[in-house]
Amino acid sequence: MRIPLSWLREYTQLPADATAEDLLADLVKVGLEEEDVHGFELTGPIVVGKVLEKTPEEHSNGKTINWCRVQVVPDGQTQTLEGKGIDPSGVQGVVCGAHNFEVGDKVIVTLPGAVLPGNFKISARKTYGHTSAGMIASESELGLGEGHDGIVVLSEWGLDPEIGTDVLELLHLDDEAAEINVTPDRGYVLSIRGAAREYAHATGTEFTDPACAIQVPAANDSGWSVRIDDTAPIHGQPGATRFVARRVDAIDPKATTPSWMSARLRLAGIRPLSLPVDISNYVMLELGQPLHFYDAEKLRGQIVVRRAHEGETLETLDGKTRKLHVEDLLITDDSGAIGMAGVMGGLSTEVSDTTTSILIESANFDTVSVSRTQRRHRLPSEASKRNTRGVDWHVADKAAQRAAELLVELAGGTMGEGVTDVGEPPVVPTVRLRADYPSQLVGYDYTEEQVNQVLVDLGGHVSQQRDDTDGTTIFVVTPPSWRTDLNIPEDLVEEVARLVGYSHIPATLPVPPPGRGLTKAQRMRRQIADALAGAGLIETLSYPFVSEAQNKTFGSPNEETAAAQRMVKLANPISAEFGWLRTTILPGLLETARRNVSRGFRDIAVYESGKVFLPSATIGSPEIPPLGVRPTDEVLAELEVGIPAQPHRLAAVFTGHDSAPGPGHTPRVYDWQDPIGAALDIADVAGVDLTIRQGAHHSFHPGRVAELVVDGIVIGYAGELLPKLLEDWDLPVRTAAMELNLDALIAAAPNVVEAHPVVTYPATYQDVALVVDHQVVAADVQQTLQQAAGDLLEHIGLFDVYTGAGIDEGKKSLAYNLRFRATDRTLTADEASQARLAAIAAAETEHGAVLR
After folding, report:
1. Do residues 442 and 545 both lie within one domain?
2. Is residue 666 domain-shared with residue 721, that is, in the same domain?
3. Distance (Å, whole) CA 162 – CA 106
4. 27, 116, 429, 690: which could join 120 in a potential S-S bond, CB 3.0 to 4.6 Å?
5. CA separation for the pair 135, 132 (Å, rounded)
6. What pairs with residue 51 in β-bridges?
7. Which parts of the sequence belong to the B5 domain (predicted)?
8. For 708, which DSSP code?
9. Is 519 strand, coil or helix?
């Protein structure tokens, strides 16, 4: 909200020398956040001049300019201004390219030394063979409008000022405005009336309510017929509670907006358009009541306020035809819809430049209804901003009368005798406040007198009672009509704290309650993230919004389960393409990798840990009550059950090379080993035995994908991604990835990871190479060897897979390294060999292995 200072002074005791910064400093005391200071970017000598001479001159560039002599001081006086280019005689020589003026016209002259918007400095300069000492200004050059051809002729504005008059003062361009941020619960401050009231609260000065000065005649039967017919109120509240209508005839359609009103509107952030529109906006800013003007000659019959019918449409003032929702509250006549209540009017009854009769609408609409309509149709406006926050019910008739009086005064209209005022005032609930409650809640010892004074200053009705048990005073408060936000005792406590002063509230640091530290899952997630970062991977964060196809591609291991996969669909997605919550983290990671590869970063190892969303068969409840009504316990239980499971997943993507090239060093290309290695590192940190075995996943390369298994349960997959899929993502064909269920891994982890004792006895190393059928899984052979070798086997690892010369077709050679060690003695070679032979024998029995 922008507050022009000259406007505010009409209703408060704002000092004449106070600046916008001073006003902001005062309003901050009552909780209004300061935003900015606005003014007209005009300084220096800008005066009224009279054209004495106008000599057209044609030039070689084909342009005709006017060499003018302009008088800028009154007759019989001399020039008092000094400076380079200022003619002491008071007659300035000016070159002007406009032609819409004549000798004798009074115009606006910017003299040397003036500065116009955009830091455009006026000085004497040679042009077209003359020294032009100033400029005859247009509206756009003064920052007063756009699209206006020619310079300002003051007689066309209805002005005949004395020559030499200061234009800044004449057109009220010496004013400035303070801009404040108004929170949604204090909509009454979106007006000069409300801002003036708050200034009085902040400074303890007097406030003159502009609404009190407006005398309104009683409603009668001569007014325009209006009926409120809201047959489908939402959340139990009627859409309209009051509708005031006044008619003004014989309006001069050529009447222009006076400069004082135009200047105030511009400072308030509203562009002047035409006198009727400007009056409507001016009254809205002054009193906080949005208005709408109809061309009375275009209206057809009785006005009815009702909900929209199914399939009904309305062409709004912006020229768009909008399909209406049955919840939309409409203003209608016999021709149909003529406006969306509290949001925007219809084009069919628009006030135009030929309108001579206006019907003024000043109404009070339900905030929820207006809010839903303006959001549904994406029509935010200054009017809907106020209607969605709540408007003073008792000011509607005052605003209509004020607008009618301005139309009579400024447009020469005739106010009709008819006064329409239909509707019922809302029931204002009383609020009971114990005198000691503000002190208990805020932590500052407020006196009973302070609490009482604040409640009285708010403007409502205050009475007192006594608590029979302890004698404490209880204030019974009926909030004023403009404070629709005061509904519970805590609202009144906030007002006490605000108006007595936030500075009185002591600053006390809260003492945090003792906690038990991180949970096991939190601690392990941090340790795992640190381990991956230490291994050279970079953590990233992506949006949880994906497409349906991406979920089906990466969220299930095969196409059959992917087709049946359940997903959470977003009701209001950021993008129609990404309208689902993720069931897998890989799409976001691959998008991160793709974006980096496209920008020239080819060697990438990234990971992400986050939640996925796995809904059950039931999502939500079919019986959702309207706003303002508490759901039943059964509905709440259904909603609770319908919340999707949200396990933590961890995924990693590798593409490019594992290091940068250098002298004597050739980097290795990332392959299937890297995501498997990352999974093993994670399991090692968690203290979990992770089994790697060959698997299948429809988004991974066949034969280059492994299942990640814990306690016989598959918790993830790792390997190289399918080349065709990588082609669609514009990623290198050897891109590898891994994703696992982090919650399942942590659940299998012991509470305490015990370190094995360091054995000081030497180890014995032996190798074994076994020939098996090609389809035998190396991990299965390794597990058999490990179990059969006994307790002396300390470590086993696969170090070679060979096919070729010496190996029959359909066979492969698997070479393992075995490390034996005893914890209590030096192991002999015979003991190690016996364990090795036992392992070989088991492999022969289980897998048909033959010692190579």
Report:
1. no
2. yes
3. 9
4. 116
5. 7
6. 70
7. 426-507
8. E
9. coil
491 is in an annotated binding site: yes
Residue 592 is which amino acid? T
Which H, E and C letters describe 489-510, residue by residue? Answer: HHHHHHHHHHHHCHHHCCCCCC
Q: How far apart are CA 851 and CA 833, in angstroms?
A: 14
Is residue 618 assigned to a domain?
A: no
Q: β-strand 303-307 against 226-228: which pairing, if any?
A: parallel
Q: Are residues 688 and 787 in the same domain?
A: no
Report CA-CA distances (Å) from 783 to 310, 638, 687, 707, 710.
70, 47, 18, 15, 14
Candidates 677, 676, 711; CA nearest to 694 is 676
Cα 425–chain centre separation: 35
According to the model, what pLDDT value does residue 753 have?
A: 67
pLDDT of residue 759: 87
Provide CB contacts within 8 A for 194, sequence distance 6+: 186, 188, 288, 482
- 3-state class of 186 per DSSP? helix
The secondary element (H helix, E strand) that includes residue 244 is: strand 240-249
Domain co-membership, 287 together with 373? yes
Handedness of CA 315, 318, 323, 326 (dihedral sign): negative
- Contacts of 120-127 with CB under 8 Å at 24 or more apart are 122/44, 123/84, 123/85, 124/84, 124/85, 127/95
CA distance 474 to 533: 61
Dig out the tokens for 497 from the structure: 């704290």
Domain final residue pick, 478, 504, 530: 504
**How high is the mean pLDDT of the chain?**
91
On the CB side of 162, CA atoms within 13 Å amount to: 9
Q: Which 3-state string (H, E, C) describes 585-645?
A: CHHHHHHHHHHHHHCCCCCEEEEEEEECCECCCCCCCCCCCCCCCCCCHHHHHHHHHCCCE
Rounded to whole angstroms, the Cα distance separating 279 from 261 reads: 8
377 and 449 together in one domain: no
* Predicted local distance difference test score (pLDDT) of residue 560: 83
CA 161, CA 465: separation in Å to the nearest integer? 63
Closest CA to 199 of 427, 457, 466: 457
In the three-class reduction of DSSP (H, G, I as helix; E, B as strand; rest coil), residue 372 is classed as helix
pTM of the model: 0.66
Q: How far apart are the C-alpha atoms of 709 and 690, rounded to whole Å? A: 6
Under 8 Å between Cβ of 545 and 578: yes
Is residue 384 located within the same domain as residue 270? yes
State the angle between helix axes of 20-28 and 192-203 in degrees (0 to 180), rounded to the nearest 10: 70
Cβ-based neighbours of 138, under 8 Å, separated by 6 or more: 98, 148, 149, 150, 151, 152
Three-state DSSP class for residue 821: coil
At residue 603, the pLDDT reads 94
Both 283 and 419 in one domain: the answer is yes
Intervals of the chain under pLDDT 70 = 146-149, 231-232, 235, 753
User: Which pLDDT score, from 0 to 100, does residue 149 have?
Assistant: 66
- Domain of 443? 432-504
Helix axis angle for 520-534 and 673-686, nearest 10°, is 140
> 802 forms bridges with which residues in the sheet?
813
| Phi-psi domain of 87 (left: phi exceeds 0; alpha: psi -120 through 50; beta: other) | beta
pLDDT digits (tens, 9 = 90+) for 33-44: 999 999 888 888
- On whether the CB atoms of residues 462 and 476 are closer than 8 A, the answer is yes
C-alpha to C-alpha distance for 814 and 247, rounded to whole angstroms? 98
Dist. CA 737–CA 677, nearest whole Å: 11
The helix/strand/coil state of 91 is: strand
Do the annotations mark residue 633 as ligand-binding?
Answer: no
Query: Among 388, 423, 458, which residue terminates a domain?
Result: 423
> Which residues is 819 bridged to in the sheet?
765, 795
Strands 604-611 and 538-539: parallel
Same domain, 36 and 184: yes
Cβ atoms of 276 and 199 within 8 Å: the answer is no
495 is in an annotated binding site: yes
What is the total count of domains within the chain?
6
Amino acid of residue 764: T
Query: Does the annotation flag 10 for ligand binding?
Result: no
The predicted pLDDT at position 641 comes to 84
